[in-house]
């Protein structure tokens, strides 16, 4: 964790003391689970501690709830991805099922891939997945999507640039 200056630590500490209970309750109402709400509330304050500048919100509850909403959406996204993966695993013969460690690595990789593709146009995502996951050649993708190969190539360039930005910037 980066160094936290004393002023920032005091400001986050003050926000924590004044609003932790409210934030936990706010999250619990939306999540229906006190333990997950506590985790996300804690993660919210950790985010504040790791920010470059000390937070000085005019409306602390709105500020905290905005950060917590992002964490909540990430939590739901992860749950949905894990559920989809487990459903796909259930269709596999039992002797082909990966170990729990392998399952965890796959879920982490899928989450990273989802993060990489976030913000790209849907068509670009579709092209990327058809090329990388389905193993289709650019001409096959173009034929299936009724577009030209040049459009497939350009989409792949945008996707690869996005991969590079997320992984190395």
From TrEMBL:
Report the residue ranges that make up the RNA polymerase sigma factor 70 region 4 type domain in this protein. Answer: 111-163
Instruction: Give the domain of life.
Output: Bacteria
What keywords does the record list, in alphabetical order?
A: Sigma factor, Transcription, Transcription regulation
Say if the entry is tagged with keyword Transcription.
yes
Q: Report the Gene3D superfamilies cross-referenced here.
A: 1.10.1740.10, Winged helix-like DNA-binding domain superfamily/Winged helix DNA-binding domain
Task: List the Gene Ontology MF annotations in alphabetical order.
Answer: DNA binding; sigma factor activity
Pfam families this protein is in? Answer: Sigma70_r2 (PF04542), Sigma70_r4_2 (PF08281)
| RNA polymerase sigma-70 region domain ranges (all copies) | 15-80
* Matching SUPFAM superfamilies: Sigma2 domain of RNA polymerase sigma factors, Sigma3 and sigma4 domains of RNA polymerase sigma factors
GO BP annotations, alphabetical order: DNA-templated transcription initiation
Show the PANTHER family listed in the entry.
Answer: RNA POLYMERASE ECF-TYPE SIGMA FACTO (PTHR43133), RNA POLYMERASE SIGMA FACTOR FECI-RELATED (PTHR43133:SF63)
The similarity comment for this entry is:
Belongs to the sigma-70 factor family. ECF subfamily.
Q: What is this protein called?
A: Putative RNA polymerase sigma factor fecI
**Which organism is this entry from?**
Nitrincola nitratireducens
